[in-house]
């Protein structure tokens, strides 16, 4: 483990950190400063930056890691720009680790930020994602929205395996239980299975509480050389392994809606690099833009058999105090879904858990975590993190 790059600083920021909630760059700058301070460093110590593009068209054109480095006064710097969409959504630690191991940088600042809610509102987000996440020729002209796609996946899983809406609802209930313990979560009010199954229908069988939030938010982390892991004030968290594989970018190009061999391959890659087995993971962070996502991801990652996901999640094991804790911050369903920064927020939560900093929601003696990012439909990136 000691030869692995180490994450030594981490931070999150909500839009409440800014005077102007539409200041996308300000959000990135605030969270960068917090992460660098948390690492016990200054910007003069940073010589690498990894940044992800925005969903919002003006920033998507103008955003660059080089520009962020410039605004933060980091120079000279190795800079890596991650395009939004597909597997890159959670590639930060992979690129930082490879840069460090290749000698291109020594301290890499990884940043993701977005203010979807204050900039676009929920309706605007639905429209933008319909255009960007669907195939422009064969999907978008015919009117599918992201909730429509999740509805199709859920319908197919129910048809093939008998999964029920009540089983899916337990995922949303669990997310709220974790969020209730997280002061940064957007939705902390507890809900019941009946609340979920009686909420507004969005795309059958997906209801309002089956779907993720639309949020503002940012997260950042500092990755350093293996030998510098203990130089800072925090318990170092190692980048143990990562994997990446694409089943498709658009849903229509999948032969099966519920089978994702690419996800299994990416998970196997990350675990093989880490030297860990599935039963050695203390926390798992599926990517949860919808409740059905959690079910199909857990199945395809190999934590349960195909068709068993509904039963797997509905017996309490994924809730606080359960034997298989997931998304301990509340996930995209109850903490935040700010688009490009959702995966980084998830990974910062994993870092905090492994450092033992999560208070009432702390998983006892957590030493390992797996984080999943998904872009488009079925483009996967897996990170395995661990502490000594």
Description of the molecule:
The chain is an alpha/beta fold and 388 residues long. It has a single domain (6-118, 213-387), classed as Peroxisomal Thiolase, Chain A, domain 1, CATH 3.40.47. Helix content is 36%, strand content 18%. The chain has helices at residues 24-38, 57-62, 65-72, 92-101, 116-133, 146-161, 165-179, 193-197, 261-274, 291-301, 309-313, 331-334, 342-354; strands spanning 6-13, 48-52, 78-82, 107-115, 201-203, 206-207, 216-224, 237-246, 283-285, 368-375, 379-387. It has a 9-stranded mixed beta sheet with strand order 3-2-4-7-1-8-11-10-9, sandwiched between helices. Strands 5-6 form a two-stranded antiparallel sheet. Strand 5 (201-203) and strand 6 (206-207) form a beta hairpin. The longest helix has 18 residues, at 116-133. The radius of gyration is 19 Å and the shape is globular.
